[in-house]
């Protein structure tokens, strides 16, 4: 297999325009005859469905939730980047492109990232026209805030709910098309398999989560917009239903999976309080502007944090990174927190937390000033933990937040399976080894509104797509295999619940395939994942049956897929003998403990082909070499 | 950390057609730091191990923004705390030995799917009727072309922040969807971009709301009291104003 | 766009009509109370007022029919809202309580249908008693007119009437306690601050009206009709 990224030739700034000019078009009355399936209704899915329907295609959309409006894009807080340069601070498409590619630690494609920056401005236009209430200045024009990893103010925001407002904009645009009759919406339907006919993606198998029935849908193209796989770790900032099953089943049908080990871990989350914990809540990183991070110097510290004198406090970020101090980037902050906790210095009931202390800031600026800046975050913290952060330090800990890896796609956002397109967090395309803040919303909407509608049309116009119907044997085979997985899970009737297995898997992943990784750790993780997976299939207890609403059956097949994906993540982390972005290998650090990238040997996208699971995951690595024609590769330093 | 014993009275219903009933459960070892939904997770783990059917309830983000969770806890939608979704409610609100009655939102327009899970697609159909601004992808003018006063934008945001949970319907003595519908109408109608379709949108959404079988609004304002994001009933007044403007 | 007839059958249209008719009824009630208070005036004041109304001739009929229409619309919509409410929630909660805070749910708002129906029945009885009842005639300005005042004084000597009216007037107060503010909200009052002020004013007006109305039967009953200090009989 040869992975061709199909990057158009020519100067960077002209590639997308040129490509659009070369694209084959379909006449309006021909578009109507073609059906496109969109799986997932987050930013990417909803915007793609709306845009394709506007063009005239028949679109069928699937969501696992009870309404498309609840997709997890809704939870994004901070904002969305665009190169509008409204602040006159020197921003440009080039700068947004450069910041994004550098932020990704030079592990993404230049052409894709440039296009992302290029269309970013149209997203803002589109959203404003839809009625998205962005923050505005007194004069009525759009306001911007600054965000990590950039020296300009280019982030558009709707208070702390930018994701919600953008998603509702895309959702409403899609509901408008439902009204027009060209979009058909299927809520509470989960994609279980991809159907290939003559090597092309020609349909999907779904499960009606209410009735439990399994269904076949045929189409000319399938767009997967199913988000990331952070829930492999059990605890993450992802929603409880976010999962990797649709993507993984496509992988098992031949779609290659790229950079699975690139997982972003956010440093400021509310820590785990007990075994019952079901998810982690993120708090804006901006807290580190005024809060000081510390742990007690002594392992057996029993005193209340307020009673611990200065000499017994270890301000580890300030001591180790004197010039950046508490404001080191996400990955460094996360890694350091884990390190001190591993040394036994962690605080709280679980020992897996560090203090974020506002005592000095309050003394310096007054409580009112701090309240004005962070009041809502402090309230949220207090609501969850019942501690008052004005009076005692917050406890924080890193948490899994976003996955940069995903299904491999070419410049057209098409996977190696013809007709299977992948958009949003589900693909690997734009963020390299680390995503900058306020770039996820940008990518989801850029893919959905402005890229996929063109490239899907080009594919349909280009390729011979003989009529298929769902009676085709490929549909029967896929339906059968989906059902078999459920039947097998239900037949085990073991002693451990799905959640117990998932929690154990998450612990292995967090400990060994998490913030920092080592050869020994990864090798033992692979062994442990395999052993636990075998036990899962012999001892899992899935209640009820498949013929009605059964959330725990859904969890069971999703966890079954995580078990395989987890192994792939560990294999990829082991294979990538360098540190880059969010991927830190203990063996590859500078003398000062900083990530050591190896551009000579690892400037490539790791793309894995699925061969089978036979006790162990059998996989084949393909490498897409990353060419950097326009930017110069540099090493980061925060000392 | 103090652990509590909680007595639960939970509505169990197999499916839409089968009548439901309450079941009593006693749950030991409840930590005050658990969220309300985590407490139900623990109950379900116990039920699964006992070979019983777990309690189904809707949830997703568990951080109060997706609007999936919506249950009536001791007679109040989302429980006792103001501006708090059920997923953000913590067990420290309760005392050892308390009895908690949990019911699904009850409304003809929200048929029960199973236990505490209901079908809220009526809300999607209200949005489908007109809860959007018709702008095709690519056809949008430059974002800063139309300045919007900051106050207007802030007001629009306050209405736009609705999470679509249906707590308003659950709590309304009439099962009215006026707050949900009013919030979207008030959001879009307050912006210059929303003006061309204002009349059509308002009438279509109001009509759809009635077609779905929601009750009339009697201005109880209970909806505002239970709303996890505190949407004001002034949105309902705005909906009425725009409706009157539309028909004259 | 719907026709006006269709529009006023919509949920919003109906509510606006309820608020509008409610307002008009409140105005009517205020005038009615003013007329009632004539019982404390000159010996002939109340009957003169009655004569004045009768002298309006066809205009009085216009007013009567108008009032009846307003009342019927208000009652009809009120009852249909109640029926709709039963349909919209066929199965009730086992436990239900208000969350407080901004909620306007209370005895007053919860009992609108009940107090409304009582008032409906009351109005029929009231008309039967005082408008269609047997009355003597008296001479006012040399002309014969109904002796409403004596009828009132006699009727409220009866404890059933006196206390019955009192109870109904308390229910009227309860109806208006939510009703006045609700009418403003139905007629698109949006400001949060104004809303809070109007709620308070509404409750005060409701209490004043109720007390104004129920004072008369109680005073007549306990004061012994013409023997009461404030009532002047010929």
Describe the structure.
The complex is a heterotrimer of chains A (639), B (248) and C (234). Chain A is built from 17 helices and 22 strands. Chain A is of the alpha+beta class and 639 residues long. In chain A, the strands form six sheets. Chain A has a five-stranded parallel sheet. The two termini of chain A are 43 Å apart. Chain B is elongated, with a radius of gyration of 20 Å. Chain B has helices spanning 36-49, 121-130, 150-160, 167-171, 178-189, 198-211, 222-226, 234-247, and strands at residues 3-12, 21-31, 72-73, 76-77, 99-103, 112-114, 117-118. Chain B is built from eight helices and seven strands, in the order E-E-H-E-E-E-E-E-H-H-H-H-H-H-H. In chain B, strand 1 and strand 2 form a beta hairpin. The model of chain B has no long low-confidence stretch (mean pLDDT 97). Chain B has two domains: 3-103, Ubiquitin-like (UB roll) (Roll); 121-247, Fumarate Reductase Iron-sulfur Protein, Chain B, domain 2 (Orthogonal Bundle), CATH 1.10.1060.10. In chain C, strand 1 and strand 2 form a beta hairpin. In chain C, 30% of the residues are buried. Chain C is 70% helix and 3% strand. Chain C contains nine helices and two strands. Chain C has one domain: Up-down Bundle (3 helical TM bundles of succinate and fumarate reductases). At the A-B interface, helix 3, helix 5, helix 6, helix 11 and helix 12 of A face helix 1, helix 2 and helix 3 of B.
Task: Give the topology, please.
The complex is a heterotrimer of chains A (639), B (248) and C (234).
Chain A: H1 15-22, H2 28-31, E1 35-39, H3 43-55, E2 58-62, E3 80-81, H4 93-103, H5 110-130, E4 145-146, E5 153-156, H6 162-180, E6 183-186, E7 189-197, E8 200-208, E9 214-218, E10 221-224, H7 245-252, E11 257-258, E12 263-269, E13 292-296, E14 313-314, H8 316-320, H9 330-342, E15 354-357, H10 359-365, H11 367-385, E16 394-403, E17 406-407, E18 420-422, H12 440-462, H13 473-492, E19 496-497, H14 498-512, H15 519-539, E20 540-541, H16 551-575, H17 599-602, E21 604-614, E22 616-625
Parallel strand pairs in A: 1-2, 1-10, 2-6, 10-18, 19-20
Antiparallel strand pairs in A: 3-5, 4-5, 7-8, 8-9, 11-17, 11-21, 12-16, 13-14, 13-15, 15-16, 21-22
Helix pairs in contact in A: 3-6, 3-12, 4-5, 5-12, 10-11, 14-15, 14-16, 15-16
Chain B: E1 3-12, E2 21-31, H1 36-49, E3 72-73, E4 76-77, E5 99-103, E6 112-114, E7 117-118, H2 121-130, H3 150-160, H4 167-171, H5 178-189, H6 198-211, H7 222-226, H8 234-247
Parallel strand pairs in B: 1-5
Antiparallel strand pairs in B: 1-2, 3-4, 3-5, 6-7
Helix pairs in contact in B: 2-6, 3-5, 5-6, 5-8, 6-8
Chain C: H1 4-7, H2 11-36, H3 45-55, H4 58-88, H5 107-110, H6 112-131, E1 137-140, E2 143-146, H7 148-155, H8 159-186, H9 192-223
């Amino acid at each position: 297999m040869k992975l061709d990224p199909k990057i158009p030739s020519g100067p960077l700034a002209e590639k997308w325009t040129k490509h659009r000019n070369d694209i084959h078009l379909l006449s309006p009355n021909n578009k109507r005859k073609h059906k496109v399936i969109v799986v997932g209704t987050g930013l990417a899915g909803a915007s793609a469905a709306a845009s394709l329907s506007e063009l005239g295609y028949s679109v069928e959309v699937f969501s696992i939730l009870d309404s498309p409006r609840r997709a997890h894009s809704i939870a994004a807080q901070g904002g969305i980047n665009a190169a509008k340069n409204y602040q006159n601070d020197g921003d440009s498409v080039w700068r947004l492109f450069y910041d994004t590619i550098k932020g990704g630690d030079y592990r993404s494609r230049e052409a894709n990232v440039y296009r992302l920056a290029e269309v970013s401005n149209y997203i803002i236009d589109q959203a404003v026209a839809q009625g998205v209430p962005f923050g505005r200045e007194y004069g009525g024009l759009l306001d911007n805030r600054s965000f990590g990893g950039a020296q300009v103010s280019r982030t558009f925001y709707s208070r702390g709910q930018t994701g919600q407002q953008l998603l509702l904009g895309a959702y409403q645009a899609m509901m408008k098309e439902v009204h027009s009759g060209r979009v058909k919406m299927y809520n509470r339907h989960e994609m279980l398999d991809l159907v290939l006919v003559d090597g092309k993606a020609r349909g999907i198998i779904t499960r009606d989560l209410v009735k439990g029935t399994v269904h076949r849908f045929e189409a000319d193209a399938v767009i997967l917009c199913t988000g990331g796989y952070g829930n492999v770790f059990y605890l993450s900032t992802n929603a409880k239903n976010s999962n990797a099953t649709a993507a993984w089943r496509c992988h098992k049908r031949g779609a290659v999976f790229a950079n699975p080990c690139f997982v972003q871990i956010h440093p400021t989350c509310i820590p785990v309080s007990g075994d019952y914990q079901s998810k982690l809540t993120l708090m804006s990183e901006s807290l580190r502007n005024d809060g000081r991070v510390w742990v007690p110097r002594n392992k057996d510290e029993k005193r209340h944090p307020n009673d611990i004198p200065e000499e017994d406090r270890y301000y580890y970020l300030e001591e180790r990174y004197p010039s950046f101090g508490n404001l080191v980037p996400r990955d460094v902050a996360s890694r350091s927190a884990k390190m001190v906790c591993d040394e036994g210095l962690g605080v709280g009931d679980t020992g897996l937390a560090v203090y974020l202390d506002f005592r000095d800031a309050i003394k310096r600026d007054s409580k009112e000033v701090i309240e004005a800046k962070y009041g809502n975050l402090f309230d949220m913290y207090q609501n969850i933990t019942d501690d008052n952060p004005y009076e005692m330090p917050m406890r924080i800990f890193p948490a899994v937040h976003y996955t940069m890896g995903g299904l491999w796609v070419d410049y057209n956002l098409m996977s190696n399976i013809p007709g299977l397109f992948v958009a949003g967090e589900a693909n690997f395309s734009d963020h390299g080894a680390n995503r900058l803040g306020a770039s996820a919303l940008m990518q989801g909407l850029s893919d959905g509104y402005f890229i996929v509608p063109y490239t899907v049309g080009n594919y349909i116009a280009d390729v011979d797509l003989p009529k298929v119907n769902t009676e085709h044997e490929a549909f029967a085979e896929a339906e059968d295999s989906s059902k078999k997985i459920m039947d097998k899970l239900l037949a085990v009737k073991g002693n451990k619940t799905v959640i117990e297995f998932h929690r154990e898997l998450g612990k292995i992943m967090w400990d060994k395939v998490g913030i920092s990784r080592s050869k020994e750790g990864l090798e033992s993780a692979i062994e442990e994942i395999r052993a636990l997976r075998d036990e899962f299939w012999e001892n899992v207890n899935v209640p009820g049956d498949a013929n009605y609403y059964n959330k725990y059956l859904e969890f069971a097949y999703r966890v079954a897929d995580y078990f395989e994906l987890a192994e792939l993540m560990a294999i990829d982390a082991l294979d990538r003998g360098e540190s880059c972005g969010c991927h830190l290998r203990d063996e590859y650090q500078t003398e000062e403990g900083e990530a050591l990238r190896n551009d000579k040997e690892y400037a490539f996208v790791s793309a894995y082909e699925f061969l089978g699971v036979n006790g162990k995951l059998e996989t084949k690595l393909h490498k897409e070499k990353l060419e950097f024609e326009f930017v110069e590769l540099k090493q980061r330093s925060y000392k | 950390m103090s652990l509590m014993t909680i007595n639960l009275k939970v509505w169990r219903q197999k499916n839409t057609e089968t009548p439901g009933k309450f079941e009593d459960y006693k749950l030991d070892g409840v930590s005050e730091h658990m969220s309300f939904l985590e407490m139900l997770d623990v109950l379900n783990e116990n039920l699964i191990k006992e070979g019983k059917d777990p309690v189904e309830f809707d949830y997703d983000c568990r951080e109060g923004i997706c609007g999936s969770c919506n249950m009536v806890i001791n007679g109040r939608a989302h429980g006792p705390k103001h501006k708090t979704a059920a997923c953000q409610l913590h067990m420290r609100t309760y005392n050892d030995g308390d009895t908690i009655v949990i019911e699904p939102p009850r409304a003809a327009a929200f048929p029960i799917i199973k236990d505490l899970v209901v079908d809220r697609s009526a809300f999607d159909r209200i949005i489908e009727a007109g809860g959007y601004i018709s702008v095709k992808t690519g056809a949008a003018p430059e974002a800063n072309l139309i300045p919007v006063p900051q106050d207007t934008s802030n007001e629009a945001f306050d209405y736009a922040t609705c999470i679509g949970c249906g707590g308003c319907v659950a709590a309304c003595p009439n099962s009215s969807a006026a707050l949900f519908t009013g919030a979207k109408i008030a959001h879009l109608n307050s912006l210059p971009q929303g003006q061309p379709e204002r009349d059509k949108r308002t009438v279509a959404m109001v009509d759809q709301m009635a077609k779905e079988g929601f009750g009339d609004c009697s201005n109880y304002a209970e909806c505002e009291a239970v709303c996890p994001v505190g949407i004001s009933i002034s949105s309902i007044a705005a909906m009425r104003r725009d409706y009157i403007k539309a028909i004259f | 766009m719907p026709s006006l007839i269709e529009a006023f059958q919509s949920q919003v249209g109906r509510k606006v009509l309820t608020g509008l008719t409610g307002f008009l009824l409140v105005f009517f009630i205020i005038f009615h109370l003013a007329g009632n208070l004539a019982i404390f005036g000159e010996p002939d004041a109340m009957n003169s007022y009655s004569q004045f109304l009768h002298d309006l001739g066809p205009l009085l009929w216009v007013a009567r029919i108008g009032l009846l229409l307003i009342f019927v619309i208000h009652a009809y919509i009120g009852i249909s809202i109640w029926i709709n409410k039963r349909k919209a929630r066929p199965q009730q909660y086992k436990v239900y309580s208000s969350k407080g805070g901004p909620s306007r749910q209370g005895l007053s708002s919860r009992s609108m249908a009940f107090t409304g129906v009582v008032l409906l029945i009351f109005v029929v009885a009231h008309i039967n008693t005082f408008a269609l009842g047997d009355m003597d005639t008296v001479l006012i300005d040399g002309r014969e007119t109904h002796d409403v005042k004596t009828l009132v004084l006699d009727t409220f000597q009866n404890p059933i009437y006196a206390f019955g009216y009192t109870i109904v007037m308390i229910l009227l107060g309860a109806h208006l306690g939510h009703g006045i503010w609700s009418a403003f909200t139905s007629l698109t009052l949006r400001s949060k601050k104004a809303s809070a002020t109007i709620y308070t004013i509404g409750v005060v007006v409701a209490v004043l009206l109720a007390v104004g109305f129920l004072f008369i039967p109680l005073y007549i009953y306990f004061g012994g009709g013409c023997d009461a200090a404030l009532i002047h009989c010929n």
